[in-house]
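Async update (no meeting this week)

Hi team, since we skipped the sync, here's where things stand on the single-chain job. The sequence we agreed to prioritize is pasted below, unchanged from the tracker. I ran it this morning and attached the output directly underneath so nobody has to dig for it. Comments welcome in thread, and please keep replies under the output.
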Amino acid sequence: MTDQATSPGTPPDPTVRSPEPTTSLPDPAASLPVPAADLWGSIDELWAWLETNRSIGGDQGLLLLRMLKLSEEVGEVAQAVIGATGQNPRKGVTHTWDDVQGELCDVVITALVALRTLTPDTRDVFTRHLAKVTERSLGTARSSS
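Output:
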């Protein structure tokens, strides 16, 4: 892949690809997974803290706010990716790929807390859904390996 400099005001050449991230993906075997009990215990604790400190009443209003918070977090991922790749010529590179990773973690946490808002059976609901998605996506490949 080649980089092509453009002068200000000149639209970028659509045939030139943006540079790939310079960091490599972590080796999954080198990472220590967080035990499930800690994950779900933390989600329950965060949910309880939010319940104690909420400023709006009613279940529908609360759920709406949790969903809006999820949308906000997804927007922050987009902002971080744009900043990590320098795609806004006015701002340049403003974020790192570590920032993107952190924002993605915020999305996951926020989604799990929103799910916990819907049901106290968060762990079971998530585990069953993950099993369905895994089977649907990897079912044939998984049985042949």
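Quick observations from my side:
Helices lie at 36-52, 59-85, 97-118, 122-144.
The chain is about 60% helix and 0% strand.
Reply here if anything looks off.
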